[in-house]
## 1
Amino acid sequence: MAFGDKMVRIAVDAMGGDYAPEEIVKGAILAAKEETGVELTLVGRLDILEDKLTGFDAPGNITIEAAPEVIEMGENPSWAVRAKKNSSIVVGMKLVQEKKGDAIVSAGNTGAVVGAAFLILGRIKGISKPAIATIIPTPSKPVLLLDVGATTDCKPQNIFQFAKMGQAYLTNVLRIENPSIGILSIGEERGKGNELVQEAYGLLEKSKLKFIGNVEGRDILFGKADIVVCDGFTGNVALKLMEGMAEMFFSKVKSTITESFASRLGGLLLAPGLKKLKRKLDYQEYGGAQLLGINGVCIISHGSSKAKAIKNSIRLAADTVRKDVVLAIKESIENDRERE
Amino acid sequence: MAFGDKMVRIAVDAMGGDYAPEEIVKGAILAAKEETGVELTLVGRLDILEDKLTGFDAPGNITIEAAPEVIEMGENPSWAVRAKKNSSIVVGMKLVQEKKGDAIVSAGNTGAVVGAAFLILGRIKGISKPAIATIIPTPSKPVLLLDVGATTDCKPQNIFQFAKMGQAYLTNVLRIENPSIGILSIGEERGKGNELVQEAYGLLEKSKLKFIGNVEGRDILFGKADIVVCDGFTGNVALKLMEGMAEMFFSKVKSTITESFASRLGGLLLAPGLKKLKRKLDYQEYGGAQLLGINGVCIISHGSSKAKAIKNSIRLAADTVRKDVVLAIKESIENDRERE
């Protein structure tokens, strides 16, 4: 492995996310202390970050890169990336482009991160559109879902490439041999789904991938496939719905517990088990999503990430660099070409 | 109201669904006993149904209409509807076409029900594509989601018509005045979403509907809008994901409860509250989905419907006939024309 003994240098967008910069800085400090072999560069407003680092007693493997501008969460991504050249997202991405960083972690405006990565780092040859791949925590096993929001309007070929990238990622980074791949649809039978799914099905079926056909929403949760591919619109709707369901469910169980004395006692007795379940289904444990298809490692953390999620994102970034997912995807695409 | 005092005659597809005919017949008998002013016609295989009705001691307001063929759950819908003219779905639909029935209830092959309704009953003038509208049980309030599977590839105009139909349904049948309408998307801001959503947004924005803009998956659950519109592919993925999440949660809580003596005791104390929550989130309570846009009342029950769900579907069918949703949609479309 190229990075076996080398330091992994990670640019962290300190200004992106609902709890930036506070929680981002905290998360970076946690990671810098716990992870060996990483050097972190917090990208953002110099005055704020210097102040925070001093306050939090930061270790020596964290430095600061000045980026006076901030792309806000609601801003138009393509406009913002072009207009705000000194934003933390653009400056961080340039560190990776200039080989001063091996990866970038951002909890900021997802569209802007995807846009900046595409513009500055460029896409992997043979991949037309990028995809955000995220691990869905399910009770049975983690499932990789992609795309969850990078490419909202897809062609069948894009979905096929997502499957290839997902396979390369799972095989090389998560060491899952020959992962099974399903396409998100609305019925198990071949022929179910919209036109996009039906055409992508045809491409997947002819490939050497371990394609298991259509999977439905509930199948994601019951671990029917290791990888589930879909367009970025459907994937993002699904992801947010799962998060919302988990949130609603735990909040409703909580209010059920507070209803009476008996239920409060019951809740007390059940608390350890419920906490364990909640942790198991918590996206923060998984540390964010991978932007696949670009020439670099880019981890997109959830907008509502707190310190723990940022720490896990940094760990994921380091691991992804060491296992060289970009090379794995390149080889996977290259192999296909040779076969043709 | 046209049906204030008149009998409502409902054709019930006795052969459709995972638990047909047993649970369908049971559900019909429950409805025939509990509901006043309904006459039910069980459509299906004569020998089986006669046998069941005798066994279950059926009341007098249930009759049988012979339909020797059955469209299976996995069969290709458009083929099956054309080939199996004597299937329970086609025969039931013809009862409505010939005015021998006011509505049809089926838990069978959804594609076949939609196809047969479209072919036999025809669509409402001014509506290009049908939509399946279903009530999503959420803790705050019921939300109407459409389309959940009738039209998988939509044009912006279809989404707009779904909103009109949803409004007519909610106003006339559920008596919700001036319901708010959101479009399912992947971000709150205007401009978020795929091309379809962005174009449909433009149509909704210009209309007289109470359009509140984009809503995300989690917003469905937190009751941000009374009606959420989307294409039938996305809606079906979302629906099945929500069902799957609820199923997974309750099964996981159950296994959490059985983990230890303390947790078993805790579960016992929490049982009444959890049961109440489960019932609140149970689709069976709502009795199925409405197929909107066709010239007739057609209730599509969940494939896994048991007697209770069928009974509720029959009740919903009777209510929908009495409140004349078809007329309401026609008037809503007509009003728009006059304004133009």
## 2
Amino acid sequence: MVYPKSLENLINYYKKLPGIGEKNAERLALATLNFKEEDIDNFAASLEDVKNKIHKCKICGHLTEWEICDICKDESRDHNLICVIEDYKSVFSFEKAGNYRGVYHVLNGLISPADNIGPDNINLASLVKRVEQAEKPELILALKSTVEGETTTLYIKKIFENKDVVISRLSYGIPMGAEIDYLDIITLDKALEDRKKISE
Amino acid sequence: MVYPKSLENLINYYKKLPGIGEKNAERLALATLNFKEEDIDNFAASLEDVKNKIHKCKICGHLTEWEICDICKDESRDHNLICVIEDYKSVFSFEKAGNYRGVYHVLNGLISPADNIGPDNINLASLVKRVEQAEKPELILALKSTVEGETTTLYIKKIFENKDVVISRLSYGIPMGAEIDYLDIITLDKALEDRKKISE
């Protein structure tokens, strides 16, 4: 064994992280040796904290340290406007973008018959309840454009058919700043189809 | 604040690691959320272990969990052949290359007047002692080919001038200015094999 046992252990845990290979894990572990004692203590404590303190918001399913997340608690936000997303990572993306002032509903998955994930396996029942309790509900479906995303979008659309709910989905098109000649043809087709008139 | 506090903390600690930027740290922290409870406990424990258990070998200055490191303890190795290196990372590289059967002496630095690091600031006194106590001492100076490395090599050569010590340095197989611990093992083996005697 080349490394002392505790160092070897640390290397193995760094290796479990996405995109961290053998060489990189070694580098991170050796760098950790140079951390201040206090920093190592806090680093270890923050790992335990993340495990012990973080769970799902009772209302929207997003990650929080409380019973109800800060977004659901925020009275300045529009609670009739609910953005439906696949997982909590999308919440962080929207919040960083910073312009959305509604709330979220985290499905924690998408309908995928191939993986045995049906409508009952994702966080849909509580969405129905939320919509029923809202005054003028509006849903924004922000699910990815894969088969599973489209299936889930259609399923949700069907649930609220004939009910007084405005439903929209994110627009498809060219990412801002992207080179048009590097775009995949499906996106390009979609952008063409959904083209927006700009003349009067 | 976009992230729950404990998650934000973890992101900040990942960001302290070399080569891990904001975006990557977020990715690692979110991936950590999906670790098994047991893995998080062990990950945190391994951080503390590295801090608490690892210190320098009393003989060679290499990292170990014991008073004397496994290499210095190993009686099958040639204790007259001492490879002098800048830091412990080089030991790991040599040990991975796997052909060196002598022992090491970790200087923990190089002479660098510009940084106010003189001969007394690196682990040289104990090297002199080790050489004096050895039967037929042979030193291999495996320091990088920078000004500091060359200065230190010359200084050590001078210390043992007119003493019964064979001194060699690694051959010029080392790319100029490269860090020894990032060398590929074949180059490292070659440099070890072609080491060049510099004492009379």
## 3
Amino acid sequence: MLSFESDYTEGACPEILRRLAETNLEQTPGYGLDPYCESAKERIRGAFGAPDADVFFLVGGTQTNSTVIASMLRDYEGVVAVRTGHIGVHESGAVEYTGHKVLTLPDHDGKMDAGELEDFIAAFMADETRDHMVFPGMVYISFPTEYGTIYSKAELEAIHEVCCGRSIPLFIDGARLGYGLTSGANDLRPEDIPELCEVFYVGGTKVGALFGEAVVFPHHGAPAHFFTTIKQHGALLAKGRMLGIQFDTLFTDDLYFKAARHANEMADLLNGIFLEKGYEVFIDSPTNQRFYVMPRERAVELHGKVRFEDWCPAGDGKVAVRFVTSWATPVENVLALRDLI
Amino acid sequence: MLSFESDYTEGACPEILRRLAETNLEQTPGYGLDPYCESAKERIRGAFGAPDADVFFLVGGTQTNSTVIASMLRDYEGVVAVRTGHIGVHESGAVEYTGHKVLTLPDHDGKMDAGELEDFIAAFMADETRDHMVFPGMVYISFPTEYGTIYSKAELEAIHEVCCGRSIPLFIDGARLGYGLTSGANDLRPEDIPELCEVFYVGGTKVGALFGEAVVFPHHGAPAHFFTTIKQHGALLAKGRMLGIQFDTLFTDDLYFKAARHANEMADLLNGIFLEKGYEVFIDSPTNQRFYVMPRERAVELHGKVRFEDWCPAGDGKVAVRFVTSWATPVENVLALRDLI
Amino acid sequence: MLSFESDYTEGACPEILRRLAETNLEQTPGYGLDPYCESAKERIRGAFGAPDADVFFLVGGTQTNSTVIASMLRDYEGVVAVRTGHIGVHESGAVEYTGHKVLTLPDHDGKMDAGELEDFIAAFMADETRDHMVFPGMVYISFPTEYGTIYSKAELEAIHEVCCGRSIPLFIDGARLGYGLTSGANDLRPEDIPELCEVFYVGGTKVGALFGEAVVFPHHGAPAHFFTTIKQHGALLAKGRMLGIQFDTLFTDDLYFKAARHANEMADLLNGIFLEKGYEVFIDSPTNQRFYVMPRERAVELHGKVRFEDWCPAGDGKVAVRFVTSWATPVENVLALRDLI
Amino acid sequence: MLSFESDYTEGACPEILRRLAETNLEQTPGYGLDPYCESAKERIRGAFGAPDADVFFLVGGTQTNSTVIASMLRDYEGVVAVRTGHIGVHESGAVEYTGHKVLTLPDHDGKMDAGELEDFIAAFMADETRDHMVFPGMVYISFPTEYGTIYSKAELEAIHEVCCGRSIPLFIDGARLGYGLTSGANDLRPEDIPELCEVFYVGGTKVGALFGEAVVFPHHGAPAHFFTTIKQHGALLAKGRMLGIQFDTLFTDDLYFKAARHANEMADLLNGIFLEKGYEVFIDSPTNQRFYVMPRERAVELHGKVRFEDWCPAGDGKVAVRFVTSWATPVENVLALRDLI
């Protein structure tokens, strides 16, 4: 059955499988201390214009979020995120499990507002009882967000300025970074990201890899002994070169961005079909996740023909639904939707 | 350069890569809710004679240890392990990071002694101050151990009997389980394992997979909501079928045990060479890790020709060294050692 | 300077100091294993009509909340509280520090609504992604609340019914329990409390003791080895009898309730004065904390004459202020306010 | 019945109770922000010759240990202690509960050896696998130790020198500090302590107070926002002045040291009696805890007449027993022992 359920339903870009096969019997040291990881790091530094960056490879997103956040917070600090942030909703309390509170702000189609962030921190600083409260010690945003929306350069600059003004690091969850940077609506260059945050990660799992996330601390900013922290969090892959080979391949010949761009193009095509058919857009996302409103009965019927996610109730017997494309989505699959919806 | 450094220096059994390639563009649900995982679980239940077992797939060993241990202990309990146990030495305090103490017993070539375990628990129970202490809530052993040694069936039965008598679950870390079960010195059948513990895992990372550990709770014994616990620990793979495909392949046509048996045979061959050359055995391991004593100068020189690990000082200017074979070790590599050592 | 800043500005009921002095040189075992603690437990069981209750003494409120909550949740569970609940705002993240998320509901003058609680849990249960979320494992309310408001018997029954229907324990933070039970607006008897929750505590610190909170698990419901959990949380007092003597005294001759009733009477008197002077009530509390709206300038001026807390901005250049009475507040102090405000 | 069970069987020095009574109805701010705490801090700075010290008051010893240790360690670090250290044995895993491992060294009558400490850290630094291990991030010793023994100035200097050389802070648990500093065998002045560690605490609970421990960071060394950390650990007393009044009293007219000296004198007297009666000394302690060997039957019989602790089996049907004196022990009680033992 056709599936637009998520961007992690398929395997990996064929180039990755090919290189895994080619290198299979080579013997290299474990834990990421191999030449493939070194090469991949260098390519990522190049792609993001951050020659001094510290780069680390972890396996998955939730793991990366809790490892990075815990490593950068002091015990008495929490992380600020919007109410719909992945860390606060769909990570089974992984951040709290490390002892830290997620402090929440309202979201605007998944995005944080710089002004609201400033107000929140200012109110905290002005509160005479703040020594009995959790200190905001980091700001977490996703690019793109849970809703596929993206920050403009101006919006991201505004948030980073607030963070700098308060000496609070900004962490960008880039689980779908590629889809954001190759969106037609995006005005950020890859080189802008390291300038506008203290740490971000380049998502592999959802953008063409079997698994893997590349954490980047621009300008040598990694916390002391971050390798050990990764190990302590159970996030250190023994055969670390599997991560190196994947990211080395993704950042060769621009594969990462080509794969992401394809997904966005398929999403644009899909969007045209939905609009043509008269569906109401639920959230106006410019990346590979698209959201529409449909009568619940229609959705129920459609679930028999194609896989997609019911996102949330949309009132009046309607439901918001999500369709997701990936690097692997064939154009025929999208076109096939025209007859189904 | 030739390497006997560890059993995770190569990729995966070629059968695994082949199936990853064959299935690459299929679309399946994430998080292990796919048919490959189901099939793999069924094969594992079959291989270990445990038709009612709950089976879960995680990515790596340290992660598996801390997730399983934390899920089965109450907050006031700790886990009992020998002094040289992996969880107490080489996991960067991952168990303590979840809030639990590792209570240590002496080791005997890496093994726990059932009598010492009984004495330890009996002493705890007899201690009038025990309410101010950490309760022993689980027993952790490795099969094979850190030193490649294995428990006889009688030894394992004795430990399990102590655990049952005290109502304390026994956890077997099987990161190298295959190498233990196919050792010539072993008298345990795969079906014995589920009978003699409350939880164990079948290591994939070190026995032919790219990564992956299969946690088995015999007789429906999984802790409530263990899926959520895996997620909370950052141990849930989004593209979960990668684990299913690997274990499904490993437990098809006995591949797992064949791969392990090959490594043991290569280790036996290697051992013959070391003995022939007059080296002293440091620890008498019957699996794929072998330990010898050599003059430090000889070891330094040898490091220029072949990769292996210096294990520990052995007195008198000598050093204990470790040589490890794997499912992938070619016989020529072992034979090449004869001229080098 | 006159102070209505809080109910923990003075020492303890003189009867307590007297008994501490009388018993000072007696020698008793530590850690609460003394006759005074036994007697105090028995008196508390009597006062709350819970002859089978397990009773434990801890030192302070934040400590009690995090110890009780952590002891009753599984790792994958969180505690549900209203947005203004003390555990979510003014305990420096003590609950998160133990690894658990505080799941928030809206508050209504500090209170939880049973319907909203039911909806929240129902929505969680209906959410197909719930295995990636934090499970609601306990419900936390305060009686009285942060705003001095109290639940009616019907309201508390409704909340408890939701909890029972979902098999989720209800925890009542009774840091100011005495003030609630002796309020003129209250329709709950002490004997009702054990019937309507799985655990509650009787606050001593804010109701006449130097310090101390008595945790009550009705019907033998204490978590296994709760003594050890208390110790692990650093909440076990070495000279435990200091807690026993205090609670034994408070629950002799009804002292606890008399002391609380006095504070409520002083608060009623104070309220009459504020109303007489034409102040607007901010939140209509029937206990020892009272909230009024006043122009910010007036508040600033008044701070020079009497201690009280600015609670929050109230719009239009106004501020909400809090005045608190205690068991120790002399009637003259209240009357003196008439000339100041 | 006569008791030599511990030094926390009685209440507090009468001077303390008197001042609690005198100040009882005063109104002061909570949480230690009162004049009594300020005065007490100043007196402690004076008594220990540390005019720039940051001083904080906590309630009990286990709480103080885990709060201080967690506040000074990074997540990947553990604390080094001897095998018999209180934090590793009798605190119910409170340190591990905060996520940190206790790394153990052998003890010598309860004491750490500087050479063994240096060797341990040197071995860690030389271990090529150290990035997979827990980093030693703090050293913990007690003065006096669990066995009542004390470090000479030279011994303490040697340990501190190792710590300084490795940039690892030294923490002295002074739960019984007074008894150590007033021992006839001691050659350390109070002013030496701040020079020879990065943090220590002055135990009140066991030296004349109802409860309370004063944490001292010499030279403004407190971790950032330590107040909030105390709150997060549930260790912040609402009526904080109770701690201030107690320590202010203890450090007025040398009461703290006088009380401790009395206990030591009583212990010397008791020791004379035991030696006169021909008992074998088990551990030669020069402070208020004394250890002797006696036949088990004799011990059983004696338990019917006087309270004391059986410490551990001493072989051959014998048992080591502990007798403890306190600031409150009357000379008649000690003399009464002559007829009993």
## 4
Amino acid sequence: MDTLNQSQNTNRQILLASRPSGPPTAENFKLVSSSKPEPAEGEVLLRTVYLSLDPYMRGRMNDAKSYADPVAINEVMVGGSVCRVELSRNANFAVGDWVVAGGGWQDFSVSNGADLVKIDSTLVKPSYGLGVLGMPGLTAYMGLLDIGQPEAGETVVVAAATGAVGSLVGQIAKIKGCKVVGIAGGAEKCDYAVKKLGFDACLDHYSEDLPTQLANACADGIDVYFENVGGRVFDAVMPLLNPSARVPLCGLISQYNATALPEGPDRMSALMGTLLVKRVKMQGFIVFDDYGHRYPEFFTAMQQWLSQGQIHYKEHLVDGLENSVEAFIGLLEGKNFGKLVVRVGPDNLA
Amino acid sequence: MDTLNQSQNTNRQILLASRPSGPPTAENFKLVSSSKPEPAEGEVLLRTVYLSLDPYMRGRMNDAKSYADPVAINEVMVGGSVCRVELSRNANFAVGDWVVAGGGWQDFSVSNGADLVKIDSTLVKPSYGLGVLGMPGLTAYMGLLDIGQPEAGETVVVAAATGAVGSLVGQIAKIKGCKVVGIAGGAEKCDYAVKKLGFDACLDHYSEDLPTQLANACADGIDVYFENVGGRVFDAVMPLLNPSARVPLCGLISQYNATALPEGPDRMSALMGTLLVKRVKMQGFIVFDDYGHRYPEFFTAMQQWLSQGQIHYKEHLVDGLENSVEAFIGLLEGKNFGKLVVRVGPDNLA
């Protein structure tokens, strides 16, 4: 008997109640209940089993047009999910099918099937579709390999080293023969990155002397910096970039809660000057826009690495849709350890 | 009879006398005379006919290690040159040969031949080896085509639009079917860019409302921004960059004389945020390091465009080595109109 509060009759939804200024608080969200949606002809009714919580969601809470439209006030928070088909009026899906969907922060949703990817639960742990075999995995794989172009023997640095993306970036770089230096928050995460993930070193970003530690750990400079945090980690990285370094720009989590630009001086020209004299490539990417078409190639490679034990993957599971808000606020503070996933409904495979 | 002060007996040299703080002044340079150097076995004696003056030289005057070592105090200023072989102790070169060399700011130099490229003066105007067929040409060609990857119909923006590099970037972009918007200093240059070079528009960077003018001229946003100036031109460009825009980073002439970073706020994270959400590639390059091996491909294409009248090329000739300092200081202020070349010695082709 499962202790989750998902019911068969009502649809709990977490809405965006107001836009945060700075870090989001519980007041920015609202839990409401409504009736289950009804699928039209050609649609399926989906029950959310797992909800993915990811840093990009903070950007959707702002009113500014980013790479995607903001969530409207009183609209359901967006999010990737792993769902089961409860009712099907679409010939391509049967009741019980596991799918990766964009169901959002709620118990039930409907889809016409166009955005769904079926999961073979005999091959793949369904929740992995939100992480190592889903968006974060594709992000790590494409950002590192297509933009970062690491060569064996080069030094790769990645922050949020035990997070959903960073842990995979570092492990793929190790598979490619690179030296990998991670940066993470606290001794436990750093220990895990070295002992379990096989990084060559992992530094605590809370250390006062991070710049010195990083310079020591990267004695030959930095060839690829996979950027997912920004802020003082990037400040420490910038002077160590080697000629022809590559900086795939995947996220800037340290900046997401900022309400104003930092005080001066204005280092924008200094960054551009560094890119110029060191011939650095810095390239932003949005994984499904840029690399969605290469998902099959990624899936094949990652499946194989997983099955051979070359990739370790850690999930941080939180039970209950009602706990999503607290978990998400913690994610932005680095409180999770591994890919953050909310178990919304019973996940028995039968 | 030529009025240049080049003699057959002495070697005038312009040395770096002191390092500038801010814009260079005449006092940072020193004109000295010494005896002509003597080529050893395997070497040639070169007489400088043309000296190239280029913005990158400002960087070499600083003590900071940039992409190349700084010029030492009391050392001859570095620079590309077109020379004639005066005396040869190298079987590969004959007296009278025209070559592109790195002769520096002086009348005579010696070389073992390894850094020399012969010019067929029956095909090519020798001074073009310092511009449209030399380093600036290769810079424009590779930065635009290899990093910028412009597609027909896209909007390309380039500053210093009548300069050695910018004028070629815009014309190559036109050949590739792009819409080209230039930015230049003053009405005369802007007029030239539109009427002679065929740009679709050219804006005066002295205008107060440059951001508005640029937004109007780039109604469909900016797909490629070839960056060679930085500063307030980039400030105007940044908000107009389209998703997946490319920014080849070739120079930052507006910053070269800066002695300190601008006042805040610190926009470094804002630049990275823009690159991220718009999926922009910004990539610095140093042309001979990155693309020297592709010189033949470039030469063939550019030769053909020149011979077909598809590329216009304007030189700004200054007579006399002794006038190099004033000309160089003016270059950093945008006083030249076309590729700045100093005629150091007689250039009769016989």
